Amino acid sequence: MAINPLALMKMKDRLHLFRQEHPKVGPFFSMLREKAVSEGSVVELKVTTPDGEEYVTNIRLTANDVETIHMLKK
């Protein structure tokens, strides 16, 4: 699979915009990488819609998950 340079540039711009609009997210994820990403940790994701409906899921991190996260941070 080839990487589209234009798509990569657009993604970079979108990530910059996301960081500007949500400045607390980056430091939160940095703290998690250093302290909470280990095999057996549970990651939970909750989304609440504007009308109050909630969706929740979670995963228990495996060794493969931890390796993937460490690769992504490089």
What would you note in describing this structure?
By secondary structure, this protein is an alpha+beta fold. It folds into two domains: 1-35; 39-74, no CATH class. The protein has three helices and two strands, in the order ααββα. The chain has a two-stranded antiparallel sheet. A hairpin with a 5-residue loop joins strand 1 (42-48) and strand 2 (54-60). The longest helix is centred in the N-terminal third of the chain and has 17 residues, at 5-21. The protein is extended, with a radius of gyration of 15 Å. The model has no long low-confidence stretch (mean pLDDT 92).
Core attributes:
74 residues, alpha+beta, 2 domains, two-stranded antiparallel ribbon, extended
Offer a concise description of the structure.
The chain has 74 residues and is an alpha+beta fold.
Total of DSSP H or I helical runs spanning 4+ residues: 3
Strand order of the largest sheet: 1-2
Largest sheet data: 2 strands, antiparallel
Please bin the fraction of helical residues.
Answer: 40-55%
Q: How many β strands by DSSP?
A: 2
Structural class given helices, strands, pairing? alpha+beta
What is the ordering of alpha helices and beta strands? HHEEH
pLDDT < 50 stretches: none
How many domains, as an integer? 2
> How large, in whole angstroms, is the Cα Rg?
15 Å
Mean pLDDT: 92
Give the N-terminus to C-terminus distance in angstroms.
Answer: 20 Å
**Strand portion:** 15-25%
Shape: extended
